[in-house]
Each structure stands twice: as C-alpha cells, then as structure tokens.
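hey so i finally got around to running the thing on that chain from the lab meeting. sorry it took forever, my laptop kept dying and i had to restart like 3 times. anyway pasting the input first so we r on the same page abt which one it is
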Amino acid sequence: MKLEWREPESDAGKTKGAQPAGERGERTRRFYARVAFGVLAFFLAGSWMGISFLQGGGKDGRSPASKAPAGLDSSPVGASSPSFHQIADGKYTELRGSYQFIYTVDPVLQVCVEEVFRAHRPPFGVFVALEPKTGKILALAEYSRNRAENGGIWNRATYPAASVFKIVTAACALEKGQYRLGPGKIRRPSKWEHQTQFDDALGKSNNVVFGRVASRLVGSEALRQYSSAFGFNQPLPFDFPVEPSRAVIPEESYELARCGAGFGKVTLNPLHGALIAAAIANRGIMMRPYLIEEVRGAEGEILYQGQPVVWAQPISAKTAQDLNRMMRRTVEDGTAARTFQRYGKDLLNKITVSGKTGSLSGDNPPGFYDWFVGFATAEDPQVALSALAINYHRDKFRGAFIAQEALKTYFRKRLN
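ok and heres what got predicted. didnt touch it at all, straight out
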C-alpha cells in the first residue's frame, strides 16, 4: 500500500488545522460560558425548573420524568430534555418556571422526522440536524417503540460509532501525511483488485484499507490527537447536558487497525455526529451547537439570545474540501447509494449529498446500530445531520432512509 507524498503547503494564507477543541478558542469559550452562566443564573435563580435545566432536578441529578427507556441502562445525563409541543409565531416554545424558552428547531422538519419514526416504528431512533455555518439546531428528534413517552435517548453516547469513525481516520491521514487524492494512491495487493482510490475506499467503507491506513500510516498518537481535535473524550458544549463521545485509541497494531476501520472502543453521541459532519461542511470549522434562540421573562423582555460561536477547528479547509468530495461517493455509488436511489432519486436529481454510513452491533441497548451522518448541498452546505436507527436483527430501518426523508423536507421548495 502506498500513498503519494507531496510537499507540505505553505501556512501562508492557509487556515491551520488540527486545533484540539480543548485548546483552540479557549478564550472565546470562557467568555461565552461566563456570559451564559451569568445570564441564566440571573433569571433561573430560585426556580425549580431552572435548577432542573442546569443540573437535572432530583437528588440523583435526574428529572423524575426522564427515566431511561426499556433496554437502556441508566444514563449519567440528568437534566430534563427540551419539549417540542407548543408553537408560537412559528417557533417551538416552552415555559420553564416563569420564563419562556424559544427554540431554534424548525417545526416542519421536526414533525417530518417524528412522523417517519412513528410510521416505521424502529426499536430506537435519533435524528439531529443543524446549520453548519452557525451551529443552530434545526431538528432534535428521538423515538422509542415501547416507551415513547420517555426521553433521554438523543443525549446519550452509548452508541458505537462504527464506520463513522473512518472520517477521523481519513482526516488524520490527509492532514498528517499531506496526501493528495487521486487514482492509484492506495495500492492493495489482491487477486481481484490491485489498487483502490481513497475516496472509493471511504465511499464503500473499505475496512481493509482503513485498517492499514490507521496502523501503518497514521499511528496511535496522531489518531488520538485528531480524535481529540474532533471533540472526542471531552464535554460537548450545548444548552442541555449531553454525554461526551469516547474514543479509546490502542497502541497495538492490530487493535489500532480495527479502531481506525470503525471496530474499536469508540462511542458517538448523535449530536456530536452531526457536529463532525458540520465541521467538514463548514471548511473545517466546528461551531458550538445551540438550541435556545431566546429566553424571555414574565413581561416578554429578552433575557438571553443564542448566537454563533466557534468551538474548534479540527482540520484545514483543504482537508475538509477533500473529505467533502470523498463523502459524496457514499451517496453516489457507495454504502448509502441503494437507499438514496430507491427512495430519494428525485432528491439526488437536484441536490448533492455528502455522507458516511456506519453499522455495528451493540449492547446498550442490544441491537444493530445503523448510522448516517452528512450534509447537503455538497457545493454549498445548508444543513448537516446525524441519523441513527437501532434495530433488532430482522429490522431493516436505515439511518440513510431517515436522512433522505429529512432532506426532501428541508429542500422541499427547491424540489417542487
């Protein structure tokens, strides 16, 4: 296997990549945290609902109404989830104590995804959509077949990342090795195939190629560095508490190969999955996601407003552009092509979609996990998303199916 080497590009005029979220933008995050905490503490002080929002309510940090659904172990995430039931002036609103929370969620997109879940009734399902350039949440839906009244599925990170983690492996290889995409860049001795293009390997989720890239080219230290840069193993900044995604990067070559191909001890929060896709869509810049658009007081006065804030820049704009092109292969002729061609052919006639699938069995809850993370349009990304379906063995509900249904609704004006 061989990847073509090119001389590192000059840093002049180029955005520097691989800035871990824990380091880059620290001053911005500290300022934002101080402002947000001060404002929220001011108008939520003394309110039980406010305390529940920040800390989870009960003595054990869990709101009484947020018990884990059947099949899921208890979660350390304790705060009550947002409620999307009341609409005023085209926005979801919720009263918490004497304060009115106005959310960024698009009611049309939210209802579309909820109807898809109810129609197909998967054991569990989660969908998150956001604007790549701002971090504004556009949809946040979850579903549980047996106990749909319970929340707390969307904010968990007990789900195996599977081949979605190949995005991190690919980004690491492109950044650290300074490799150029093109034919003949990865050579793989085989009776049937002598060479594989890197974009084809990602689009078709080639485990052998990505195992070799991780173990022979990238290495554990670099993969650990870029996992952190993409937000693994650290708190995710959000208006409601969410479990952080975890990535255990091994040293031993065989286990490292498995990890780089998506079979390691890596878990992914659905919101984080959307953030990873959004960072690629947004030229390598990962925005802080926000759900609260405004908080108003008893007299209707605005006490808080959400705003776009840069959280991290895990990769350079050039690497993001390369990954964008590679991820288009997933939908064009890769692992999601059949689903999109069968159900979203009209969508693909007008909209270009970049994405990555992932599928793997897991045990919390027991089942088969099927991911799709991506964004559209590929040329000018407007929406990034993460769709997760958790099936039992006979079920065939796909994350890619949820994604294409959501995209048809989001781009409905362009398709009509």
